Request: fold
Amino acid sequence: MHELSIALNIVDGVLEEAEQRGGVRVAVVHLRLGPLSGVVEQALLFAYPMACEGTPLEGSRLLIQPSEVALYCPTCQEELKPATLVDLRCPACRGLDSRVVRGAELEITGIEIVPSEVQV
Reply:
């Protein structure tokens, strides 16, 4: 399950940010996750508490915001939604030179912090 290693990387990144902010307590980690990221959302949600065990993030929550897939077609000069996640051709002209501009994200978009004396 590579989601555990991804969760560990998320925890490392958030801990680094919390340290830079003076050791703040993190209550919630916000993540944007695209369907083309190769990450299974439920597996990541399952792995996250394990990755947090024994760290200052223990007890924090992971909130995932899904993103939609969007393509840019240079022929049509438009950003469009593909017909399916398997067929990434331009849905208007059926051109093969479309590129994914959204939908492969796996990024931390924010953290919610609480005063250190408050239990998460």
Q: What stands out?
A: The chain has a mean pLDDT of 92. Residues 1-67+103-120 form a domain with the hypothetical protein PF0899 fold fold (CATH 3.30.2320.50). The first strand starts at residue 25 and ends at 33.
